[in-house]
Amino acid sequence: MNYKTNIFIIIARLFKTAFQYMWRNIGLSIASMTVMTLSFFIIILCLILYYGSAKIIEYIDSKPPLIIYLKGNLTDEEGQKFLDKIKSSGLNVDVNLQDYEFSKRDFKEKIKDIEVDDSVLEGVLPRIAFIRGESQETLRKLISYLENDEEFLSLVDKQNIDKFGWYNFDIRQADFIRSLNEFVQIAGIVATGLLATVSMILIFITTKLSIGYHSKELEIMNLVGAQGWFIRTPFIINGALYGLISGIISVSMIWASYYLITTYYPNSINQILGIIGTVPWPEIDSYLILQFYLYVSLAGAILGCMSSFIAVIKYVSK
Question: What is the rounded CA–CA span in Å between residue 258 and residue 201?
């Protein structure tokens, strides 16, 4: 029997012993893994909320934050007057005044299932100006500067003033998402630290009780000359398995919840996304799912391994 074969036999025995310890304390093992699974589930939810809100903010910021609707028959001279008016505000903003063809293309894209002749749209749709500033506050100041200027108001689309106003700048959504993102970040850090600590303490106690339950067996192993690492390793493997299994179950719960919600309650998702704007729902592929399983399970195994290692160092004699 060569050296490699001996290594495999030893590893197999260690895992066999670890599974035996788990089985003999099945109630305690299940209780520990249940609490760890719920802890990981909450931690993952916090991470998803933080990541999702960050992506939503990124999406909102990537769009032109201020849209001004000018009259459709705006002349070149009036267009220049509009640009000069923006410049006279003294605010650092970038202005992109679209031509009328853009308005027609945009309108046709929104009603692509309906055929509309270009002649019908002539002069009806507003000219659109996209404005981006250094900050949301800069754009607020620009709106305040323009809204009482009669010369500027003569350039905007009258229909939009009557029905919707001359601009589109609802920053309440972005501000709410930013506040949510900051709250989730702080709450997530606190929850992750607290739940990770609870999980480590639970595995520590579970390992301690398991060591006490097998104390006579450990004494016999000591008497027959078993090495300390051989006695301790099964308990460390137990801790790693607790974390590994809990991680797998918690991720499975997340994906099961996602599947059920998107399959049976798609309208609820659309309503939620409608509140925060037209935010694209992220694509979920098998690679992303595999990454989730790998990272969470690995984190759980490391957490469990560390906690059980501390317990065996303290309670298992050499």
Answer: 30
Q: Provide the domain limits for residue 95.
A: 66-170
Burial of 299 (0-12, 13-18, 19+ CB in 10 A): middle
Please state, in angstroms and rounded to a whole number, the distance separating the CA atoms of residues 286 and 114. Answer: 38
pTM for the model stands at: 0.63
Q: How do residues 170-186 score in pLDDT, each as one tens digit? A: 555 566 667 777 887 88
161 lies in the same domain as 126: yes
On whether both 80 and 221 belong to a single domain, the answer is: no
Dump pLDDT digits (tens) for 171-227. 555 666 677 778 878 888 888 888 888 888 888 888 888 888 877 877 777 777 767
Number of structural domains found in the chain? 2
| Dist CA 34 CA 242 (whole Å) | 9
- Domain check: are 178 and 89 in the same one? no
Q: What is the DSSP string of 117-133?
A: -HHHHTTTSPEEEEEEE
What backbone torsions phi and psi does residue 177 show, to the nearest 5 degrees?
A: -65, -40
Is residue 281 within a helix (H) or strand (E), and if so which, with residue range? none
- C-beta of residue 188 within 8 angstroms of C-beta of residue 47: yes
C-alpha 243/C-alpha 221 separation (Å) is 27
End-of-domain residue from the set 145, 170, 195: 170
